[in-house]
Amino acid sequence: MKKFKQSNMRYKQIIESNKGIKGFLPGYQAADAEQFDSNSSIHTMMEIIIPFLNEAYSTIPHPLKYVLDIGSGAGSMAFFWRKHFPTLEVVTLDGNPKTINSPFVDKQRHFVVRTDQEYKIVNENNEIVKFDLITSFEHLEHIQEKTFRQFLKNILTHSHEKTLFISTAADWEYKEEGKTHIHCNAKNAQEWKSYLNANKDLYGHAIAMPPPRPGTLWSQQPFIMQLFHQSLAQAFERGRREDVLNWQHRKVSSTLLSMTYQHLGQGGCI
After folding, report:
1. How far is CA 189 from CA 107, 170, 255, in A?
2. What pLDDT is stored for residue 1 in this prediction?
């Protein structure tokens, strides 16, 4: 990956009415974003997928410089991007106001917003920032379907023809009393395909990959799923067993989604 010099560019979020989440909101669980323990696997597990994301973007004929993590929680993924690729410009978004106090965020590049309401990240020249790689892990299932189209519009606003979007979306719902609202938009891969095909004006091409069935050969999986598995296997060999198990636990009940933004409205989701 081509490296860039660290910039002194300043950013701001200019939709002043969007200041994050206050009080009850279907899909919102504050504790998810308040994991500030550097020794917790909830934090360290994010490090082992940085090679996967970097390798996935390397298939795009464009240098990687700007990364946006939506629903970043405490900012763990951005922390490890900065650790391994300190010249990248990494911006994080989360609806929980307490995340600005996380030791893992860059306070100059972290914004508290509802990701399903309009937001605009601009640079010091007041230009909307167009990100190369946009990620959103374990976040989509928390966004109500009635506002999900705005979530996609926000991504489109901050994308260009070489942008790659990668996310996971849990397909299960909470059963415990008082928690049934948390995964308010749980969908399986086929349901995501149907939804995205009904809103294909907001991206170019997409793929919704269900959890692999037991016994499935990895060579038969889509290339991006193969890269994901490869990163986990390499991490396991390096002794990151707990982090790998955390991802595997999530992977068996999540859809892996990928979208690109060239040829808007012409591709759809497969």
Report:
1. 35, 10, 6
2. 37
